[in-house]
């Protein structure tokens, strides 16, 4: 995943601008699923509460985390507009299959296995925040305005704290070995999906398939 991230931004400035706009499209597709995923997992926790000792504290965390993440997909549309893209077209664009794979696997596991698996997904996404210098570097290379990089800047600042919250929650929940395996499989699947998405974005202007 880290190698794919490096390769994503390792291109000549002439191609980087188009690649960044396509990256904004892809991230909007992915991040707009974040809050609905957490809400679905929290609802599943409420259905499981009682006999399942993890359900109540996990559900509370997911409800709170969803509130903190709400609106981040709108940031991406604002970034896209500032970069010269069409936010309305982005909303109606068919999501890339690799993005559907990423979110779809989580829906399956939270409904048909256990919502704790979603922590693997969250941990990977928030544990690999953009570097603090990336927004400035891309702005300089692409010539795009600073307003086109809000999401990168915000997540570089926010996600370190969010990662610590997930780690602390895992310590408090003390998941069983089977639940740890579910979290691990989810995390590995997420890392693989992000690596595939970023690798496909390096083909811009063709775009992911």
Can you put this structure into words, describing what you see?
The protein has 209 residues and is an all-alpha fold. Helix content is 75%, strand content 0%. It is built from eleven helices and no strands. The chain has helices at residues 2-9, 13-31, 34-48, 55-69, 72-82, 87-92, 97-112, 118-126, 134-142, 150-173, 177-201. α2 runs antiparallel to α5 (72-82) and α3 packs parallel to α7 (97-112). The protein is elongated and about 55 Å long. The two termini are 18 Å apart.
Structural classification: mainly alpha
* Terminal-residue CA separation: 18 Å
Number of strands: 0
Cα gyration radius (Å): 17 Å
Biggest beta sheet attributes = none
In short:
Helix content is 75%, strand content 0%. The chain contains eleven helices and no strands.
Write the layout of secondary structure elements.
Layout: H1 2-9, H2 13-31, H3 34-48, H4 55-69, H5 72-82, H6 87-92, H7 97-112, H8 118-126, H9 134-142, H10 150-173, H11 177-201
């Amino acid at each position: 995943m880290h190698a794919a991230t490096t390769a994503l931004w390792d291109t000549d400035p002439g191609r980087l601008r188009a690649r960044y706009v396509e990256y904004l499209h892809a991230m909007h597709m992915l991040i707009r699923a974040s809050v609905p995923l957490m809400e679905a997992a929290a609802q599943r926790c409420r259905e499981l509460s009682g006999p399942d000792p993890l359900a109540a504290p996990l559900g509370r965390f997911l409800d709170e985390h969803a509130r903190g993440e709400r609106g981040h997909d709108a940031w991406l549309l604002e970034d896209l507009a500032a970069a010269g893209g069409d936010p309305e077209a982005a909303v109606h664009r068919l999501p890339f299959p690799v993005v559907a794979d990423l979110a779809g696997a989580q829906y399956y596991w939270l409904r048909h296995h256990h919502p704790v698996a979603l922590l693997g997904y969250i941990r990977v996404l928030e544990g690999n925040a953009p570097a603090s210098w990336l927004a400035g570097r891309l702005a300089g290379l692409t010539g795009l305005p600073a307003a086109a990089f809000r999401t990168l800047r915000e997540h570089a600042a926010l996600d370190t704290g969010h990662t610590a919250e997930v780690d602390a929650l895992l310590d408090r929940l003390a998941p069983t070995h089977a639940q740890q395996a579910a979290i691990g499989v989810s995390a590995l699947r997420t890392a693989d999906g992000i690596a595939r998405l970023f690798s496909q974005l390096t083909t811009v202007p063709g775009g992911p398939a």
